[in-house]
Design brief:
The structure holds three protein chains of three kinds.
Chain A lengths: L3 E11 L4 H7 L5 E12 L4 E5 L6 H9 L6 E6 L2 E2 L6 H9 L1 E4 L13 H10 L8 H8 L16 H14 L4 E5 L7 H18 L2 E6 L2 H7 L2 E6 L2 E6 L1 H6 L4 H9 L38 H5 L5 E3 L2 E3 L6
Parallel strand pairs in A: 3-8, 3-9, 6-7, 7-8
Antiparallel strand pairs in A: 1-2, 1-4, 4-5, 9-10, 10-12, 11-12
Helix pairs in contact in A: 4-5, 4-6, 5-6, 6-7
Chain B lengths: L12 H7 L1 H8 L1 H18 L1 H4 L41 H37 L1 H15 L3 H15 L5 H15 L2 H16 L2 H8 L4 H9 L4 H24 L11 H9 L8 H28 L5
Chain C lengths: L3 E14 L2 E14 L3 E5 L6 H8 L8 E9 L2 E2 L5 H11 E4 L3 H4 L6 H12 L4 H14 L5 H4 L9 H13 L5 E5 L7 H18 L2 E6 L2 H7 L2 E6 L2 E7 H6 L4 H9 L38 H4 L26
Parallel strand pairs in C: 3-8, 3-9, 6-7, 7-8
Antiparallel strand pairs in C: 1-2, 1-4, 4-5, 9-10
Helix pairs in contact in C: 4-5, 5-7, 7-8
Classes of the chains: A alpha/beta, B mainly alpha, C alpha/beta.
Pfam family, one (chain B): OppC_N
Main location (chain B): membrane
Keywords (chain B): Cell membrane, Membrane, Transmembrane, Transmembrane helix, Transport
């Protein structure tokens, strides 16, 4: 039984100008499809990564997974509970305490006017739980000192703040943590510390991560399974070894080829063609076809379904 | 390196604050120090007016009509008494009336700003956090009100309120009506600033983290967002205080504000101007100078505060 | 044949504060030769951008150059002020910043921005400048360049905007380009395009490039030599292949090792404990010693180790080739 079941998840944002402007300028309503018909499962105690460039909808999926956004269509089930449709308050609260999130910006994710103790305790104290000694215990668990509980966030560096965020995420003893680019604001050496900490915690506490990142190298390191997103669609899903050794979707291939390599001295590559299309008017058929080197007429007419190709799921007419 | 000192040991909260950037900037700004001193002196004088004032200008028993129109620092021709700032036609000591007038002025100003602040912060916070048609309605009302001069709005509210109050309570209620009138004319800028700041804060990740664990909207607004939008509010409150004091003085000068039984600085100026051309200049001049100094000091303090709290301007 | 386009000698930048004098750039030395790309790499706060800004005279007060010399094509430029510096900056040094929007005037058509820059620094007619502007846009890979001259910056996508910035930086034919995190705000696929473009143009024209970035992968692929900065000082300077594969300074070693790329197949990433010292609490001696596993007494004592023409500023450089991770 998968812990997270994402089924046909779709999210459309209304990005139209105000009504009066539309009438005067004779503009139609503008609808941005951030996530389009995405389905995947995440097994318990594994790390599932969503990787993609800007506008791929990876953060939107993360927000829907934790219930910060409602899906336009489709559903996210976490242990069989749909956060956006569940009406039983008790069940909902139980489900919420099982889910936590770590955000990208360690500066914006801690309330600057609160002490570290209050910040870490909030997930528990908001539910009326016992918080005696909780923050101190968690601070030591994430590699900080219990004396830090009385300080304010501005007294810490970016990496230390991210540790505080992790401590807060652990406070309600969740089973699932959605990590939205948790290390992309950090320096490399600090990123290594935080990633190691996250791996250790995942192992020791039996956590499940939904890990969202644009950084292929980080994703390769931490994941058990990777989903590649392009323009709100899931184009490939595979294990890291399979994806990095043998990418099957042309977009995955392009992305991997373009990523800088540490041993790529003086590498001359043919850079990828084109840029990400406008998500308000996405291309017909397969969203990648205008940039795809092997696209055929079918690709521009018909959106490919996800299908299993040699141990991976790929949404491409031509992959084999 | 040799020229960097080791981090100082943690000390008491006050010492820590005194070492902080804010206090440091204060110590470095003569304008801030002077205006802060002036404001504090006036506030203290107003609070302790009954102790400081040599006479009680509202006790008819202590008044001696013979002392009327004494010039400042000159013995009265009839009684030989000397008054620092002279007396008015009733023989009231001008210095004492200023102290009591200051009391009314500061009280009305502060209470009006407090009222505007509570109203504006609440509406601004709710408008930004809830959004949608609630925001549209609140902000359109604010826009409409902003097109009328504040003093006009205050006069309108004052007039209406006076019309519906029974005659016998009018004088008692005047001060409170004044506070509500000035407060209602002044909430808009608080609401706009708080709304702007809230729109920024509500998308920050710490607010999302709080929503995630199921915190209610009220708790998020009060406990998370409110403390983080208060510094611009503090600046506006200070500058508004100067404006509210002047608005009160204007209303009182026009005769629609504080009644002569409880004169504010504005009332004193109105009374004083009647004597200007008959040579008793001091009855007008000293209350006017007090008002000017107060408004100027509060305004300069607000200006400095805005610079000090805005790291971008440094 | 190598001739130094830019020579930096003992450059020191200081910021006086009420807590003492901070030294975000502390006695650094390097040369950049014609046609060479020198990568400056370091974590945030290492002083890499501050060093770049010092070269173009764009230090924000109260930061100022308090020591050392900067030579550009044999002219000393660290003492130039006001108008002289501005002219030099436009003519001889081109700049590419992280955020293309801040480098372009949002109210001017990009064709006008290009021609204005050329008219200012080159002796050519307006007509010719406009033709060259179109050619420049074409060269940086903007489709239908001649038509796009009349577009405003906001009409371009992020990647296209960065191309325009590169065209703008190159149009006065400078001898040095300073690129400060030019691809950090861009997506991977666009980043590859921009890097390839920068590389090609500079090689074709023999322009020297100072490439400031925190991304080791970009440096490895792009730079000829690399300077590793730590806490305002140069930790290591050398050929990019040597520095990346056989780092001498323990900090470089740790930095390389902690990228997930280098730890391929490892369960845990290698990590350097602690974080870079704050400028207000700089340790005595070698700035890295509190985090260094090889630190000895000499590392904690003044004076700190210097590069002195060698590759790394370390008393105990790593001799053996760093262990390759399989």
């Amino acid at each position: 039984m998968a812990m997270i079941q994402v089924k046909n998840l779709t999210r459309i944002f209304d990005v139209s100008k105000p009504w009066l402007n539309r009438v005067i300028e004779r503009l139609p309503k503008a609808m941005l499809t951030a996530v389009s018909d995405v389905s995947f499962d995440v097994e318990e105690r594994t790390v599932y990564s969503l990787v993609g460039e800007s506008g791929s909808g990876k953060s939107t999926i993360g927000k829907m997974a934790v219930g910060l956004l409602k899906p336009t269509d489709g559903s996210v089930l976490i242990n069989d509970i749909d956060l956006s449709r569940e009406t039983d308050g008790g069940k909902l609260d139980k489900a919420r305490s099982d889910i936590q999130m770590i955000f990208q910006d360690p500066y914006a994710s801690l309330n600057p006017r609160w002490r570290v103790r209050e910040i870490i305790n909030e997930p528990v104290s908001a539910r009326g739980g016992n918080v005696v000694g909780l923050a101190e215990k968690l601070l030591e668990q994430v590699g900080l000192s219990s004396l830090d509980a009385d300080k304010f966030p501005h007294e810490f560096s970016g990496g230390q703040r991210q540790r505080i965020c992790i401590a807060r995420a652990l406070a309600s003893e969740p089973k699932l943590i959605v990590c939205d680019e948790p290390t992309s604001a950090l320096d490399v050496s600090v990123q290594a510390q935080v990633l190691n900490l996250m791996s250790d915690l995942q192992e020791n506490l039996g956590l499940t991560y939904l890990f969202i990142s644009h950084d292929l190298t980080v994703v390769q390191h931490i994941s058990d399974k990777i989903g590649v997103l392009y323009l709100g669609r899931l184009v490939e899903e595979a294990t890291p070894d399979e994806l990095f050794e043998n990418p099957k979707h042309p977009y995955s291939q392009m992305l991997l080829a373009a990523a800088p390599k540490m041993d790529g001295f003086g590498r001359e590559i043919d850079p990828p063609q084109g840029e990400i299309p406008d998500p308000i008017n996405p291309p017909t058929g397969c969203a990648f076809h205008p940039r795809c080197p092997i696209a055929t007429a079918k690709c521009s007419a018909e959106r490919p379904e996800m299908r299993v190709v040699r141990g991976a799921r790929v949404a491409c007419h031509l992959a084999e | 390196m040799a020229d960097t000192t080791p981090a100082p040991k943690p000390r008491g909260r006050l010492a820590h604050w005194w070492d902080g950037d804010f206090a440091y900037q204060f110590r470095r700004s003569p304008v801030a120090i002077i205006s802060f001193t002036v404001v504090m002196l006036m506030v203290l004088a107003a609070i302790f007016a009954p102790l400081i004032a040599p006479y009680d200008p509202f006790d008819p028993a202590s008044l001696n009509l013979m002392n009327g129109f004494s010039s400042p620092m000159e013995p009265n021709a009839f009684t030989g008494e000397t008054f620092w700032l002279g007396t008015d036609d009733q023989g009231r000591d001008v210095f004492s009336t200023i102290l009591y007038g200051l009391r009314i002025s500061l009280f009305v100003g502060a209470a009006a700003v407090g009222f505007a602040m509570v109203l504006g912060i609440t509406l601004g916070l709710v408008a930004a956090y809830v959004g949608g048609w609630v925001e549209t309605i609140i902000m359109r009302i604010a826009d409409v009100q902003l097109t009328f001069p504040a003093i006009l709005v205050a006069m309108l509210i004052f007039g209406v309120a006076k019309g519906i109050t029974p005659v016998e309570y009018r004088d008692q209620m005047a001060i409170w009506v004044l506070i509500v009138a000035i407060g209602l004319s002044d909430w808009v800028q608080f609401a706009r600033v708080v709304r702007g700041a809230t729109l920024v804060e509500k998308n920050k990740e710490y607010v999302q983290a709080a929503r995630l664990i199921g915190r209610g909207s009220g708790a998020i607004m009060l406990r998370h967002i409110l403390p983080n939008v208060l510094s611009p509010v503090l600046v506006i409150a200070t500058i508004s205080l100067a404006l509210a004091i002047i608005a009160e003085a204007t209303l009182s000068f026009l005769g629609v504000g504080a009644p002569p039984t409880q004169p504010s600085l504005g009332t004193l100026i109105r009374i004083g101007q009647g004597f200007l051309f008959s040579g008793e200049w001091w009855i007008l001049l000293f209350p006017a100078c007090t008002l000017l100094a107060l408004a100027l000091a509060v305004n300069l303090l607000g200006d400095w505060l805005r610079d000090a709290l805005n790291p971008k301007l440094r | 044949m190598s001739e130094a386009v830019l020579s930096i000698r003992n450059l020191t930048v200081e910021i006086p504060t009420r807590g003492g004098i901070l030294r975000p750039v502390d006695q650094i030395n390097y040369d950049i030769n014609r046609g060479e790309i020198l990568g400056i790499v370091g974590e945030s706060g290492a002083g890499k951008s501050m060093a770049g800004n010092a070269v173009i005279g764009l230090l924000n007060r109260p930061a100022k150059i308090t020591g050392g010399e900067i030579w550009l094509n044999g002219t000393r430029i660290d003492q130039l002020e006001g108008e002289d510096m501005r002219r030099l900056r436009g003519k001889h040094i081109g700049m590419v910043f992280q955020d293309p929007l801040t480098s372009l005037n949002p109210l001017l058509r990009i064709g006008d921005q290009l021609t204005e820059t050329m008219l200012e620094h080159l002796d050519i007619s307006r007509d010719k400048a406009r033709k060259r502007a179109a050619a420049a846009l074409d060269e940086v890979g903007i489709p239908a360049a001649a038509q796009r001259l009349d577009s405003y910056p906001h009409e371009f996508s992020g990647g296209m905007r960065q191309r325009v910035v590169i065209a703008l930086a190159l149009c006065a034919e400078p001898s040095l380009i300073i690129a400060d995190e030019p691809t950090t705000a861009l997506d991977v696929s666009v980043q590859a395009q921009i890097i390839a473009l920068l590389k090609r143009l500079c090689r074709d024209r023999g322009t020297a490039v100072m490439l400031i970035t925190h991304d080791m992968g970009v440096i490895a692929e792009t730079a000829d030599r690399v300077a590793v900065m730590y806490a305002g000082r140069l930790a290591e300077l050398g050929n990019v292949r040597d520095v990346v594969t056989h780092p001498e300074h323990p900090y470089t070693d740790g930095l390389m090792g902690s990228t997930p790329l280098a730890s391929k197949g490892l369960k845990r990433l290698r990590q350097i404990s602690g974080s870079m010292p704050r400028l207000t609490a700089m340790p005595e001696g070698c700035a890295f010693h509190p985090r260094c596993e090889f630190a000895q007494d000499i590392c904690r004592a003044e004076p700190r180790p210097k590069l002195n023409g060698g590759r790394s500023a370390c008393h105990f450089p790593i001799q053996q080739p760093a262990e390759e991770t399989a």
